[in-house]
Amino acid sequence: MAVSFTKIPGKSTAVKGLVFGFILWILLNVLFGIPNIGTYCLTYYLFGISGGIIAALVFGYLIGTLFGKWNFSPIKQEEELQTFP
User: Residues near 48 by Cβ (< 8 Å), separated by ≥ 6?
Assistant: First the structure.
């Protein structure tokens, strides 16, 4: 998330985290779950998608909030060290 933080739409870090979680949900649950329809059934796939979106959005919200709280920026630290007498 740190690499793509400036490219994700949204003003707050929580919204950016939700967008990140939604993208993960589409990639991991929706796209990679399609081959499992033949092995299992459509009901299992739909339950997996519905449970997966809740987990992905909670994960995205938490990672966005924590990233905003504990954002590590080496540039800011270098500036602080240079201004320190």
Answer: 29, 33, 36
Please write the tens of the pLDDT for every residue from 18-44: 998 999 999 988 888 888 788 888 888
Q: For residue 29, which of 45, 14, 6 has the smallest C-alpha distance?
A: 45
Residue in this structure with the two tokens 């809740």, named with its chain if needed: 54
What interhelical angle do 13-25 and 42-69 show, nearest 10? 150
d(CA 34, CA 83): 55
| Burial of 35 per CB tally in 10 Å (0-12, 13-18, 19+) | exposed
How far apart are the C-alpha atoms of 68 and 17, rounded to whole Å? 9
